[in-house]
Amino acid sequence: MSDNGSVAAATWEQVELARHPDRPYALDYIHAIFTNFLELHGDRVFGDDQAIIGGPASFDSRTIMVIAQQKGRTTAERAMRNFGMANPEGYRKALRLVRQAERFEFPIVAFVDTSGAFPGAGAEERGIAWAIAENLVALSAARIPILTLVIGEGGSGGALGIGVGDRLLMMEHSIYSVAMPEACASILWRDIAKKVEAADALKLTAADLKRLGLADEIIPEPPGGAQNDYGLAADAAAAALRRHLKSLEAIDTDQLVEERYQRYRKIGATP
Amino acid sequence: MFRPKTRYVALPSPRAGVGEEIDRLICPKCDTSLEPARLTAALGVCYRCGYHFRLRAPERIAMLVESGSFREEDQGITATDVLGFTDSQPYVNRIEQSRATTGANEAVTWGEAMLGGHRVVLVVLDFAFMGGSMGAATGEKITNGIERAAQGRLPLLIISASGGARMQEGMLSLMQLAKTSAALGRLGAAGVPYISLLTDPTMGGVTASFASLGDVIMAEPGAMIGFAGARVIQQATYETLPDGFQTAEFLLAHGMIDLVVPRPELPAALRQVLDLYAPTGTAPDLQLQRQVKTVAPAPAVTR
Of A12, A259, B112, B257, whose CB count within 10 A is highest? Predict the structure, then answer.
């Protein structure tokens, strides 16, 4: 039991690292890895959601389309970014950028960092579930390479809403889960204090996802975590993005889209 | 006093016991004591207030399809505990309990059937099996159904009732959202119509994937439909939620679904949609079947 307890404690440490307030956020990576980032705003329907940002940027000699979940650093920015929890407008802005990327043949690089889509009455009224589902369809069929990089928290459908792609890369201390441990504990254990046990049971660390065959690569972080050296973390991320993008760009588009379909099709397939 | 507060009507499994022992049912909405026979004749709709009781998958299928036309597929596919998940009890025990209670191997049943004169692929979720939650096997069966519809150019009807993703399967569950949505993307691109019928309740990852992707989306009156649960929203935002929040009628008013259809009117509504959308040539015996299907819908429970 103490053995299980220490494993659970180690998992919880990963959860806390993934949420570390000094951890680099999407814009830190974007400015370190790309040049010429032009942030585009608005979903052309309702508003501009600051929890999901995006736009074209230069990466090596090509233009790529960035789509990213952005948390805030200061209290004011956290409020502006809604703690990285997007409303439907954020997902619809992302959809607009996916369509644009397809039209101009820009590969997509998506940075995932959210505890989940925003649980709010307005989000429900404006169809948060509908917005996410539309993105799943659009991303799964988009005729351009798509790289997904989880930099901090990957929370449930809210993460997946910008997270469908050809490769899933995870920073060493990032997590990705069907539900945040607190939510899982309160639903299954009916006790939020069981979050440590829930985190362990959910198999949500980067290493877990690699073992399950869901993540393609774990990107090493500086000792102690990415918060200790943004430059090193961004360099490692850039190298991995460059390598995977190059290999995806070599694949014929029809084959690329078929391989992406099969990538998800085989998850949970009966032998 | 024994006052069973069930949202289900006529649980069919003798092992469950409930359906056998009680001779009165209490409507959760109007609190009326209901006669099971009358309730069954009313298709599980409270004959006082119109409350729609939840239905089990076999009852739902029997109610909608032409008698004897349903050919079930993938009956043997069942959930597996890949993660070795244990909360207050092991996931494997929960699977066994659900199998014993429902007599089914998974939270979804699918197959081909005749409905309103059309050969269709019918996929039905059952909330009685682990809250209709979507695990890997659930997603696999749904995707198999979607792909069959695409291959056979058969209209697809998915009837949802689910709490969302199945947490006991972790990320393998979440990825079923992407898998089912990708398959529906291909179905749509192939020009095969998909009708999504939302029943009480349809929440979380199921709403955020296949349930909201119908070409035509219908819901039963009063069904709770949404992404985040009302309790979660209130805890996160301290917002006062409006009356009727996340009901089918609320979603209709906000432009998220096309129709709210009372249960007795479902066969006619589905048939109208199928007549309008079904690609020509998918139902060679169309005329014959049309003549057959002019009678009232079959009762909810056939024993």
Answer: B257
